[in-house]
Protein 1
Amino acid sequence: MEINAMMASQLTELQQTLQMSILDKTLNAGAGVVELLETMPAPAAEHPYKGQLFDAQV
């Protein structure tokens, strides 16, 4: 086997390993974000006009 073919094969394996590592870290970070969002308190829904000033003329 030529040296170029061996280096190309090793480079391909390295690229695949790096892609899997990045994907794994991204999935782990995504799971952390989802967990953080789930633990955040949900804000209370505001009333559409309660507490606002408005003029009513009859």
Note: The first helix runs from residue 3 to 39.
Protein 2
Amino acid sequence: MVYDIIMFGKRAVPLDNRAKKEGSRQRLNERVHELADDLEFRRRWKRVNSIELWSDAAIFRLNDGSKWYLNIG
């Protein structure tokens, strides 16, 4: 399985694009850029192991095994 990489700050996280659409990736990039000033997002970002991208949502898998859903639609 080939993973893409998403960069935010100095951290790169593997991205599994299940939607197989470039539009979903662009919406995720825009949403992450919008959340750049959100302190809670930055705290969570430090614990993200991987991201699974669907057509209208991103599922962030954290270090402790929990998941965090982000609406990008």
Note: Strands lie at 4-8, 11-17, 48-53, 57-62, 67-71.
Protein 3
Amino acid sequence: MRHQIQRALAPVLAGYAFQQTALIGMLPVLALRLDLPPGQVGLAIGAGLLVSAVMGPLLAGGMTAQRLRAALLVQMLASLGLIALLLALGPVGATFAILLAIRVLQGTAAAITLAVAQAASAGMGRPVAALARLQVGPGLGRALGAALIGPLIRLSIVLPILPALIGAALSLYRLGAAAKRMPLPEERGLRAPWLLALAVPFLVQCAIGAGQLGLGPLLAQSYPAAQAAAITGICLGAGYLVLMLVHLFVTPAATAIGPALALLAVALLLPVISPQPSVLIAATSLATGAAGLTIARHLARVIALRPEAARRNAAWQGSSLLAGLGVGASLAALVLPLHPVAPFLLAAGFALTTLLICRRPL
């Protein structure tokens, strides 16, 4: 019955991915609405990711059906709080503290639901195919969040927040029957997986984070800032669409991650050869698809080796993914002054390092 847990949590994962992507694109609009510096808004948005990286391993191992329902309820309440904050008449006292608290709650709830869904997927008969299907919902959420942010904001600033609220409510409803058929046993302890198991997703996301950060500055060398941002959005949206297709048709049938990592390194070198938008769209699409395939197959392998700690291992894998994304983007920002293509060289280096690591057995 594990597929019922996966299906129950799919709406909240997709809705949160939509909102997370939309919030990043809404940063300037949020700053004006809340009368906060853009840096503070960005810090609050990023806090949700950092909290997810920390709280997933702390809480997911001891998760029960009742606590999972509480996490979904927290996700709903946090989204309602964000809507109320955006609709408030005039700046609210301690606005930054309120926004930060909302994002911390959202990040905690998201970490719990993702870890439980990944562990349930990895416990199915065909774990790789199940994990691939699990990623389709969040991928669709991110793609729609990137594509619809502009039209939705023109109608109302709260519309991009609603998918997370609706998704959490739908998952809470679906979870009732699923949890009764398959209670969630607790996994005691906080022991992390072995270092090599965490290094692969961490380095892959370092490569993706560095490559994504480099897109805008590279395009800004040839296009106005607004146009460069629009093309960057197209690149990211195309990448998420390819990711969904890869998980639907390629990941379940793939048997090795070495070719995917080689493709990831090659794709991240394409912007060094040419900064044309068509090349960047192709590079982002190939890199995102290759990274997604690598991560899904690696997670399935890690959990299969130690099924008694599936949820805890899934939580640690999620933490390494979020940490890698942040580290890769931060390092890319540091090397960016050297040359506009420096982030892509750094990203390709991460991919090649991962390829070398994967030659060793887990």
Note: Residues 36 and 155 are 22 Å apart (CA to CA).
Protein 4
Amino acid sequence: MPCSCQKNKTQYEVVDAAGKRVFGPTPYKTTADAMAARGTGRKVQEISKGGA
């Protein structure tokens, strides 16, 4: 089986104050931080990837 290295890595999304996703998911926290900085009330949250 081929390796899917991204499968179990943490991903991030940016949500606004209402909890609506405005960006993501992305494997890069720095990118998510930059997108969150563009709007007021935005925050970065981790998306947990389940699996073995």
Note: The beta strands are 11-15, 21-26, 43-47.
